[in-house]
């Protein structure tokens, strides 16, 4: 099946702005798109002793639990905008990285995404968050920014 576009929607499930994505049902081109709801969770690596050993948090077992919870949360958000006439396909992607901005841009390139949708807090300028600035600078895809008041 052919879709009109491939879209990545970056969502931080810990931020209250996730509700803004409910407005996406007004974007008609999404009705026949491949949509990836994406959240990237931060990992931290700690060295153990003086050797080359290290440990990554959250641990693998915890990452699986976080992934299940995140996919469920992304699923609830996707239900809010998918109407009866939706003919596309939706994926829920939960990623882990010590550099979420870079990981998201790698995901966009790997999946050949042509449109990115993200939320930005309304402050002085449109690209106030470092995540939004980074994605704008390092991604080839078009961007739609949904602004909301802080």
List the SSEs and their pairings.
Elements: E1 5-10, E2 33-42, E3 44-47, E4 54-57, H1 60-81, E5 89-97, H2 100-110, E6 115-122, H3 130-138, E7 142-149
Parallel strand pairs: 1-2, 1-6, 2-5, 6-7
Antiparallel strand pairs: 3-4
Helix pairs in contact: 2-3
Short structural description:
The chain is of the alpha/beta class and 150 residues long. The protein has a single domain, classed as Rossmann fold (3-Layer(aba) Sandwich), CATH 3.40.50.620. Helices cover 28% and strands 33% of the residues.
Question: How many β-strands, per DSSP?
Answer: 7
Through-space gap between termini: 40 Å
Q: Gyration radius, to the nearest Å?
A: 16 Å
- What is the CATH third-level topology name? Rossmann fold
| Overall outline | globular
Provide an overview of this structure.
The chain is 28% helix and 33% strand. The longest helix is centred in the middle third of the chain and has 22 residues, at 60-81. The mean pLDDT is 83. The strands form two sheets. A five-stranded parallel sheet has the order 5-2-1-6-7, with helices on both faces. With 150 residues, the chain is an alpha/beta fold. The protein has helices spanning 60-81, 100-110, 130-138; strands at residues 5-10, 33-42, 44-47, 54-57, 89-97, 115-122, 142-149. Helix 2 (100-110) packs parallel to helix 3 (130-138). The protein is built from three helices and seven strands, in the order E-E-E-E-H-E-H-E-H-E. The protein has a single domain, classed as HUPs (Rossmann fold), CATH 3.40.50.620.
């Amino acid at each position: 099946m052919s879709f009109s576009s491939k879209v990545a929607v970056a969502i931080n499930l810990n931020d209250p702005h996730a509700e803004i994505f409910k407005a996406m049902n007004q974007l008609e081109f999404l009705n026949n798109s491949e949509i990836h709801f994406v959240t990237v969770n931060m990992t931290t690596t700690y060295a153990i002793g003086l050797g080359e050993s290290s440990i990554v948090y959250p641990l693998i077992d915890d990452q699986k639990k976080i992934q299940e919870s995140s996919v469920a949360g992304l699923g609830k958000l996707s239900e809010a905008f998918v109407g009866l006439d939706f003919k596309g396909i939706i994926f829920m992607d939960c990623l882990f990285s010590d550099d979420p901005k870079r990981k998201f841009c790698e995901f966009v390139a790997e999946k050949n995404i042509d449109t990115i949708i993200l939320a930005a807090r309304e402050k002085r300028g449109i690209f106030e968050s470092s995540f939004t600035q980074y994605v704008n600078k390092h991604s080839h895809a078009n961007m739609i920014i949904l602004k909301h008041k802080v």
